[in-house]
Amino acid sequence: MAGPGERIGLRHGAGGRAMRELVEEVFASLGDEVDGIGLSALDDGAALRLGDRFLVLTTDSHVVHPIFFPGGDIGRLAVCGTVNDLAVMGATEPLGLTCAVVIEEGFLRADLERIRDSMRAACAEAGTTVVTGDTKVMGRGELDGIIINTAGVALCDRVVTDAGLEVGDRIIVSGTLGDHGLAVMTRRRDLRLEGDLASDVAPVNGLVRAALKAAGEDLVAMKDPTRGGLSSALHEMAHKARVGIVIEEARLPIAPAVRAAGEILGIDPLVVANEGKAVLGVRPRAAERVLAALREHPLGRSAAIVGTCIAERPGNLILDTGLGKRLVAELDGEPLPRIC
Ligand code: MG
Q1: In angstroms, what is the span from residue 225 Cα to ligand 1's centroid?
Q2: 324 CA to centre of ligand 1 in angstroms
Q3: What DSSP line would sit under 64-85, residue for residue?
Q4: How far is the CA of 224 from the centre of ligand 1 (A)?
Q5: With contact defined as beta carbons under 8 Å apart, do 300 and 289 qualify?
Q6: Protein residues placing their CB within 5 Å of the ion ligand 1
Q7: Per-residue pLDDT tens over the stretch 66-116
Q8: Which CATH number is 170-328's, of 3.60.20.10, 3.40.50.12780, 3.30.70.120, 3.90.650.10?
Q9: Distance 119 CA to ligand 1 centre (A)
Q10: pLDDT tens-digit profile of 141-185?
Q11: Largest separation between any pair of C-alpha atoms in the chain
Q12: Fewer beta carbons under 10 A from the terminal one: N or C of the chain?
């Protein structure tokens, strides 16, 4: 039903196929070719050539509901989301962030200050700071609480895109899957089954720096598995590189509390957002070395080699359950709107 009469639905913001098609069809033509990585690459950010280096930049709006959740809040999420998008382009030293907030009339000032403190703390962890911003207020009922947009800039020598995979490359995840989305969802629905369930929201630039140092040029593709989870990230990477990706179910790191919450809600952690993780594609000779470097970092203790790129089934994600193999469907929408 695409066409001028079509209305935008929540699924268009969910990180799956509907969003990819909307962006490709409506927004991709905004961007002309640039010297570097521009809009048409639809990567985690842009990389503009600046002499012999690259200026990497990215921007994200955050609409998570509820704004405070186990393990974090919208402020921490806004800082980490931007720092992480820079990091997975290979730019692990953010020079500065912008912060634009749109606030609903009636919003508690104390909550705003709590969000600011959380942003400050996240910036300190990532080794960056907010350098400029903007504040707007809209009338009661014209938006739901608060929206925060952050952008970030960094310089780097070598850009790592999400399109660099080749047959034989190994896929590494930096830690457990699905924590953020399921922590937000259980809090939203007030399910009181949280237990150890908390968002993983964290800046991964230090972790990615360690991986880059260990891998050098053998780290060939990277992405942060946010909306749509590991499934959407790997579908996109497979699609762009025209390879198939096989992942082994038994190797996927999933925390017991996340697995339990997923079963109760009927949601596969594989399609659920992470906010403190990276997916790395590495040449096979570097896989063990990168894994060891990740596991030495406090945020990478559960890192695992979970898959391999194959020539068959280009653009597809295949789950090896140990008993057999099946195609993982690319998400159209997502059962979890407003997760970040
Ligand atoms: Mg990203």
Answers
A1: 7
A2: 31
A3: -SSSEETTEEHHHHHHHHHHHH
A4: 5
A5: no
A6: 44, 85, 224
A7: 999 999 999 999 999 999 999 999 999 999 999 999 999 999 999 999 999
A8: 3.90.650.10
A9: 19
A10: 999 999 999 999 999 999 999 999 999 999 999 999 999 999 999
A11: 57
A12: N
